[in-house]
Design brief:
Strands 1, 6, 7, 10, 11, 12 and 13 form a seven-stranded antiparallel β-sheet that branches. The protein has a four-stranded mixed β-sheet with strand order 3-4-8-9, with no helix packed on it. It folds into two domains: about 1-75; about 95-290, Cysteine proteinases (Cathepsin B, Chain A, Alpha-Beta Complex), CATH 3.90.70. α1 runs antiparallel to α2 (about 25-75) and α3 packs across α4 (about 130-135). By secondary structure, it is of the alpha+beta class. It has helices at about 1-20, 25-75, 115-125, 130-135, 175-185, 200-205, 275-280; strands at about 95, 140, 145-150, 150-155, 160, 190-195, 210-215, 230-235, 235-240, 245-250, 255-260, 265-270, 285-290.
């Protein structure tokens, strides 16, 4: 690169000197001018070529640097604080029996089967919370009881607890899964809504050691049509039964579904699978559970 530069500079000097009047040899001036043009062109070609070559080297060097950085990043250990969701075994066992604590709703909460069953679920999950705290925290529908033209106007259990939970002498009913799900989310990070899922889904979670909160009725079998009545609520008409009940499923076998019953305070109570599922379906297949972090 330096040699062509010097030659070109030299020839440029020669041609410049040839312009002086002292240099009168016209032929010499023409030759000098030709060499100057030739070497100047060679100089420009080599300059451009060298510049591109250096630029290419820089790009390659940069590329290698990025690749090396990428390799270091990829090789660095990845720290996972927690799984987004634990993986279930996807194995439905033939029979299961979980050891969940049983909590009676009486005498404090004669209409509090839903929050009492939730208290069992939460305590099984390691959350120490009482049924009374949950009774205070669960959402309420404040719509007052009123009977007008032989039609009952009352709250919507999908919105919040309807009526009085503590005193049977006052109007009251209960609450459905939505407010219970909302309350459970306050205490557990991975609550699972199994409403409208299949019995196989319930079996799957129970098989993986997760009890399931469900809405059924106090007979644990399908109710006749006359056991239901229609209310007018702020959300529209709704069919209800005063036999509505909530329990915590803790197991099953070939013949029975096993559950903790807050109404009787009985642990691992049994009901025939067919009857229990009909009652559960009749009440809207409401169910929730959770998974560990």
């Amino acid at each position: 690169m330096i040699v062509p530069l010097l030659l070109s500079a030299f020839m440029f000097l020669v041609i410049t000197l040839s312009l002086y009047k002292k240099i009168i040899n016209q032929r010499y001036r023409k030759i000098a001018h030709s060499y100057n043009v030739l070497f100047f062109g060679l100089f420009m070609f080599l300059f451009i070529y060298e510049s591109n070559f250096l630029n290419y080297d820089n790009k390659v060097a940069s590329s290698h640097t990025l690749n090396e950085d990428s390799e270091i990043t990829a090789a660095a250990p990845i720290v996972v604080e927690k799984d987004e969701a634990p993986i279930l075994t996807e194995e439905i066992k033939a029979e299961v029996l979980l050891d969940a604590p049983v909590i009676p709703q009486y005498p404090e909460l004669p209409r509090g089967c839903e929050v009492t069953s939730l208290a069992m679920l939460l305590n099984y999950a390691g959350v120490s919370v009482s049924k009374m705290v949950l009774a205070e925290e669960v959402a309420k529908d404040p719509t007052p009881y009123m009977k007008k033209d032989s039609s009952v106007h009352f709250g919507d259990p999908h919105t919040g607890f309807v009526g009085n939970m503590y005193d049977l002498s006052k109007p009251g009913y209960g609450v459905y899964y939505e407010p219970i799900l909302q309350l459970a989310n306050k205490y557990l990070p991975n609550v699972v809504n199994l409403t409208n899922k299949s019995y196989a889904d319930i079996q799957l979670y129970v098989s993986n050691d997760y009890p399931v909160w469900v809405v059924t009725n106090t007979t644990y079998k399908e109710l006749p049509a006359q056991a239901f009545e229609t209310w007018q609520t702020p959300s529209g008409p709704i069919n209800i039964t005063y036999k509505m009940h909530a329990v915590l499923i803790t197991g099953y076998n070939e013949d029975y579904i096993i559950f903790n019953d807050p109404l009787t305070g009985m642990k691992n109570k049994k009901a025939p699978i067919g009857d229990f599922l009909k009652a559960w379906t009749q009440m809207g297949s409401q169910a929730i559970t959770y998974v560990s972090e």
